[in-house]
Design brief:
The protein is of the alpha+beta class and 625 residues long. 27% of the residues lie in helices and 24% in strands. It folds into five domains: 1-13 and 31-63; 122-283, MutS, DNA mismatch repair protein, domain I; 289-346, 5' to 3' exonuclease, C-terminal subdomain (DNA polymerase, domain 1); 363-460, DNA polymerase, Y-family, little finger domain (Dna Ligase, domain 1), CATH 3.30.1490; 531-623, no CATH class. It is built from 16 helices and 20 strands. Helix 8 crosses helix 13 (336-346) and helix 12 (327-334) packs across helix 13 (336-346). It starts with a helix and ends with a strand.
């Protein structure tokens, strides 16, 4: 009855009208609300139906992608202001994008196997995303958002457009070629990074060199897109095309690359299938190229919008429809480019290629008519080989980082000596001196008839200006030579430098670096022991007053220590953002000193208040000087 009072149904009635007078909207005997006079059931049912329709509509809206959902104004919520879609972007959008370190996350690269005029099975590989930072770096935190939309941009004339989009961004309606302002209007909180074409080219060159050395010698770089590999004569070495493709996919997963692979009869067909494939691996059976390409859009062939748009207006939407057209009218209407791309995909025309050839490994070799039996001629031969190899390195502006000396005896036995360099070098005297310290390991036996020196690892090395005494410049000592001599005697892992890591947990706050690497700033401001024990060793017999008392006595490695002074506690919490098990963990650290002046760094698991923080066991983390 309250609802009726609010709607004025209980107000004094007006003068009676004719029941059949519909012009005045009067009472009709057949109305639903009149059948239940004196009751609000009809109004409650109407409100329930309206709410059910509203809930159904909201459920449908929730199932839509973000870019297809209606804004608040269309939903009828006029009281909420709609954010301006053309809000200001970053300040550097108007400037040319600066190059940043490039990442391999989500690489886009293809591999095929058609070379010259031959038609063979093609292997194409691509990915739907971007080359990110990489991959070759530490993994992201466990709570990082994996579906954060990310795009890269480049400048096209006076506009900044999307160069590539990750799968999450593509699911929200973003695509390459879209203006950045439109992308920001569609997706709120979009992460934008400048494209790095030079980094893409460098990464593809490294991938091509790896493929040429380990998979097949015929590798072609598709500029801006990926790689083609000719696996017609190499797939059987890996167990067939399918096993070979899965092996490549496994490698990509280890490198944190999101990749797609397509195998077809021609290189262009493999590229088109890789661009549009929904699965990670797509193998087109031999002879089925035309059928596989028929349902694909014209853009899959690499045809530009200046041809695709007029073709769509004429009703030519797929590759099959384009292939069914006569060639002469196609050339007159769309030009030679569309027909050339179609013939290359179907194998009717050869595609010109530029095969990627990996750099040849520098090497020098000597054969002797008379076998070498003593150390002096062997050392002289090594010195000659070092001089010849350094000349080859200087011609290519490279320096050696790892060299291997192989000595073959007359009985075909081979002895190998390897040395490593802290930084690239092509100094003959320095390299010969390093080999001289290891020549005593060579057993000539009945004589050595062949000596070969190979630079297995080389890095770029540009000429350097030496300090001049006439200009009064002080002479600087090269610590790399000292590091090389020490590493030759102690081993490469015997000499290193410590570097700081952003972590509060002591055993994770230090890492090993190469001896010549300059450690970055960022060491912990609190005092830390000279010797860090990893993993910490548990101690027994600890006498301490809980919760914050300094230990008075403990036993370590069977020996009891009495503490005369101490400091603490220093509380360190677990890194819950990396490991869920450390969400509640706590360590309380104490610096203690015994009667003999030895100083130790002890910690207790737990705060002695909450059982979830630890089991109250004591451990030794390090020793002070």
């Amino acid at each position: 009855m309250a609802l009726r009072a609010q709607m004025g149904l209980d107000a004094p009635s007006e003068p009676p009208r004719d029941a059949d007078d519909h012009r005045h909207g009067g009472w009709r005997p057949g109305a639903h609300w009149a059948q239940e006079a004196g009751s609000d059931a009809w109004l409650e049912r109407r409100i329930a139906r309206k709410r059910a329709k509203q809930a159904e509509m909201l459920a449908k809206i929730e199932r839509l992608p973000l870019h297809q959902r209606p804004p608040m104004r269309e939903l009828g919520r006029r009281s909420e202001g709609l954010p301006h879609p053309f809000r200001a972007g970053p300040r550097d959008e108007a400037a040319p994008p600066a190059r940043q370190p490039y990442d391999l996350d989500g690489a886009f690269w293809e591999q095929g196997r058609t070379l010259g005029g031959l038609v063979a099975r093609e292997f194409g590989k691509s990915s739907p995303g971007l080359l990110g930072e990489s991959s070759r770096r530490s993994p992201p935190p466990a709570n990082a958002a994996e579906d954060l939309p990310l795009v890269t941009t480049h400048r096209a004339g006076q506009r900044v457009v999307v160069a590539a989009a990750c799968p999450a961004a593509q699911a929200l309606g973003l695509a390459p070629g879209m203006p950045l302002t439109q992308a920001r209007a569609l997706v709120r909180g979009l992460e934008v990074r400048p494209a790095d074409p030079d980094g893409v080219a460098a990464d593809l060159a490294r991938l091509a060199a790896h493929a040429a050395r380990h998979w097949t010698p015929q590798v072609v770089i598709a500029p801006g897109e990926g790689l083609w590999l000719d696996i017609g004569a190499a797939a059987h070495l890996f167990g067939g095309e399918a096993l070979f493709a899965r092996r490549v996919l496994a490698l990509c997963r280890r490198l944190r690359l999101a990749a797609r692979i397509a195998i077809a009869d021609t290189a262009a067909a493999a590229l088109a299938l890789a661009r549009t494939a929904n699965a990670a691996l797509l193998i087109c059976p031999p002879g089925g190229t035309a059928a596989a390409l028929a349902p694909l859009p014209l853009a899959a062939l690499g045809i530009g919008p200046e041809i695709v748009d007029p073709a769509h207006r004429l009703g030519i939407d797929t590759v099959g429809a384009l292939a069914a057209m006569p060639r002469a009218p196609l050339v007159r209407r769309f030009g030679q480019a569309a027909v050339a791309r179609l013939d290359e995909a179907l194998g009717a025309r050869a595609r010109p290629i530029d095969q990627a050839v990996p750099a040849e490994t520098p090497r020098a070799c000597r054969r002797f008519a008379e076998p070498l039996l003593t150390a002096e001629p062997i050392a002289a031969a090594v010195a000659d080989l070092v001089g010849e190899l350094c000349a080859l390195l200087a011609a290519t502006h490279r320096g050696a980082r790892r060299l291997v000396l192989a000595c073959t005896r007359v009985d075909a036995a081979e002895q190998r000596i390897a040395i490593g360099l802290a930084r690239p070098s092509r100094d003959p005297a320095h390299i010969a001196r390093l080999f001289g310290t290891k020549l005593d390991q060579v057993e000539p036996g009945f004589g050595i008839e062949r000596v070969e020196l190979v630079a297995e690892r080389c890095d770029p090395l540009a000429p350097e200006a030496l300090p001049s005494n006439l200009a009064g410049q002080p002479e600087t000592s090269d610590e790399a030579m000292l590091v090389d001599r020490l590493a030759t005697r102690l081993g490469e892992r015997g000499i290193y430098r410590l570097g700081a890591v952003e972590s509060d947990v002591p055993e994770r706050s230090v890492c090993r670096l190469e001896a010549t690497t300059r450690a970055a700033a960022g060491w912990h401001l609190w005092p830390r022991p000279v010797r860090l024990i990893d993993p910490p060793e548990q101690v027994d017999g600890v006498v301490a007053l809980l919760p914050d008392g300094v230990p008075k006595r403990f036993t370590w490695r069977g020996r009891a220590y009495s503490i005369v002074r101490g400091d603490g506690p220093e509380r360190i919490h677990g890194e819950w953002w990396w490991r869920a098990a450390e969400r509640d963990s706590v360590r309380d650290y104490f610096q203690v000193e015994d009667r003999d002046g030895a100083r130790f760094w002890l910690f207790r698991r737990g705060d002695a208040v909450d059982d979830r923080t630890g089991d109250l066991s004591w451990h030794l983390q390090g020793l002070f000087a």
